[in-house]
Write a structure and sequence with these properties.
This protein has about 220 residues and is mainly beta. It has 2 domains: about 70 residues, no CATH class; about 130 residues, no CATH class. It contains 3 helices and 10 strands. Strands 2-4-5-6-7-3 form a 6-stranded antiparallel beta sheet, with no helix packed on it. A hairpin with a 3-residue loop joins strand 5 and strand 6. The protein is elongated.
């Protein structure tokens, strides 16, 4: 009995910056990002889910008005790309977030040792506090050179036109009810084996949808 698995070949290469609740009170020209770094809390390197309760102190506002609530997101940046599974979006976290009380939580750039070492991985998140001047400089850069003053521009989003479907023989002890192939326009003969131990063919989005809405893993139990 064959099993089927639809494997997407999707390339995600996107970088987006979301600006929330920003009111511009003065003319914002293109400027440079802050030259002085924020005040980092000693020993603080929390992840996104371990930052603790937010402060109740409103943030300081400089020349550019913005929300001051500690839970309000003023500026947030996501970075992603490469050949990645679709479920990565469920665990992907922003690399930088500025909150209304001028708190920033960000992930610093990985060093060469962190990228290539035996314990390679992303650096820990850092929590810091920016002053009003630093926030102004950052928002000017985001609105000017960052291109957020007029609109958010999506530079590249890849949508696969087809997925590759594989059929494999059932194995002893397989769990699950066996059902017929779900396609009216496909049969076992449409999955040529060639020199490979599995049978494969190209599936349209509609054919993938007949099996699963998330073609990232195996779907067992097809006759």
């Amino acid at each position: 009995m064959p099993n089927v698995a639809a494997t997407p070949r999707a390339l995600r290469a996107t970088t987006s910056i979301a600006l929330a609740g920003l009111l511009v009170l003065v003319a914002c020209n293109t400027g440079a990002p802050p030259t002085a770094g924020p005040d980092v809390t000693p020993g603080a390197s929390p992840g996104p889910a371990s930052t603790g309760a937010p402060s109740s102190t409103p943030g300081q506002v400089g020349e550019i008005d913005h929300p001051t609530e500690p839970t309000a997101v003023v500026l947030r940046m996501f970075v992603g790309g490469g050949f990645v599974p679709l479920e990565l979006a469920l665990t992907e976290a922003p690399v930088f977030t500025l909150y209304g009380d001028n708190t920033v939580i960000f992930r610093p750039q990985a060093t060469e040792a962190q990228r290539l070492g035996p314990l390679s991985g992303d650096p820990a998140y850092i929590k810091a506090t920016m002053n009003a001047e630093q926030v102004d400089a950052l928002l000017r850069f985001a609105l000017g050179a960052g291109g957020l003053l007029d609109e958010v521009e999506t530079t590249e989003v890849y949508r696969p036109e087809a997925d590759r479907g594989f059929l494999t023989e059932s194995f002893p002890g397989q769990v699950g009810e066996l059902i017929d192939l779900p396609w009216d326009d496909l049969s076992l003969d449409d999955f040529p084996s060639g020199d490979e131990p599995t049978r494969a063919t190209t599936l349209t989005p509609e054919q993938v949808g007949a099996v699963t809405t998330e073609p990232t893993g195996g779907v067992a139990g097809l006759r």
